[in-house]
Amino acid sequence: MDYYQWRKKNRRRKRNLQAKKPLNYALRLLKYRVRFEDELRERLKKQGFADEEVESTINTLKKQGYLDDEKAAYLFALDEMRLKLFGPRVVRMKLKSLGVDEEIIERAIEKALEEIDFHEELKRLKGRFKDRWELRDYLYRRGFDPSLIEEILNKIDGGEE
């Protein structure tokens, strides 16, 4: 075995040993995107780590500030609302399916709604629709409440039908 084969074999062995550690695996997952506590716990268990290892890893990540459900829920809600134009109802359902606590969901959605100006976002969309009713149906399907839809439509076109 020459030097290059030996080095390649040792690198692979070293990488496998590091991948076995739950903290390294969790950090690798967090490198790609912000994750929720339940989601991370599930991924670690699926990887085959013991419950004690999983809990200690999650506690360590919380202490270091890498794992914060409140911040993750807010960022998720903001992205879904601003970039994908989903309404609060759809965002709430998505966050529930990810295992986020009800109180955290409500705070995240409220905070995201304060920052987003749907009127400006939807002014650009108005040209895609024939009339006010078509836009209203689109918004309702995207998860907006009827009262919010009316408020948005009135601000967009000054209340004209």
UniProtKB/TrEMBL annotation:
Segments forming domain RecX first three-helical: 24-59
Main location: cytoplasm
GO biological-process terms attached to the record: regulation of DNA repair
Gene3D superfamilies: Winged helix-like DNA-binding domain superfamily/Winged helix DNA-binding domain (1.10.10.10)
Record localization: Cytoplasm
Domain RecX second three-helical intervals: 68-108
GO CC terms of this entry: cytoplasm
UniProt keyword list: Cytoplasm
Purpose: Modulates RecA activity.
Family membership: Belongs to the RecX family.
The protein, known as: Regulatory protein RecX
Organism name: Thermotoga petrophila (strain ATCC BAA-489 / DSM 13996 / JCM 10882 / RKU-10) (Thermotoga naphthophila)
Highest classification ranks of the organism: Bacteria, Thermotogati, Thermotogota, Thermotogae, Thermotogales
